[in-house]
Fold:
Amino acid sequence: MSYSVGQVSAFAGVTVRTLHHYDKAGLLSPGDRSRAGYRVYSEADLVRLQQILFYRELGFPLDEIAAIFKDPQVNPVERLRARQRQLNEEIARLQRLAEVAERAIEVQRTGVPLTPQERFEVFGEVAFDLSYATEAELKWAHSEGQREAMARADAHTKEDWRRLMGEAADWRAELLAAFDAGEPSCGERAMDLAEEHRLHIARWFTSCPPDMHRRIADDFIADPRAFALVVPPSQQRPGLAAYTRQAVYANAARHADAITQGEENR
Structure:
């Protein structure tokens, strides 16, 4: 039994244009023609179309489907297993995103309600980029520190945020003053400011040993959105993010030296 392009399009749920595209790509080229010269599909063609649609549903690109059909050495089971691993990874990623969204919903429902005026009062120009927050959540998904930081942030009251941001603003003013005065990033003043920032994180979010502080500072260079949480763009200067990172690294080295010195004095 044979079927016209229109009939196959109707019961397979694909457009005529898609069938023509499969024909042009060499994936599904019906060998028969009607008396009027139109393409007609055989039962074997329908079986092949079903296989194509199955692979497409799993996300296989057309060129990979063509390779499976054309090369007898290609093991379709191995391809399917590889695709299964990819799908499982994607499912896990989407699940983490769903958890991030759920947490955001809960914060909106039960978090501290702020009017736009209060939000500006508390946070000033510091803006929390949701895309960065989501990426950070995924990046540190398996970090106990990240989970603790999110839990403590969710629990902060409006007054907590006011005090926290006040501390951050005072620290930021000192950082800008040191940078503008040309203080070296490895100098005492810059290192002390780096230490204050590390203790600020520990006080309000999660314990922040020097190695973790270095990783946070690396993001200041890698992603402008991260440094914008520390210094709003309107207050930034060229080289300030690198200066801050260098101060953090110098302070971490100072900590390591102090530990070494202490061990030598035992």
Remarks:
- The first helix runs from residue 5 to 12.
- The longest strand covers residues 39-41.
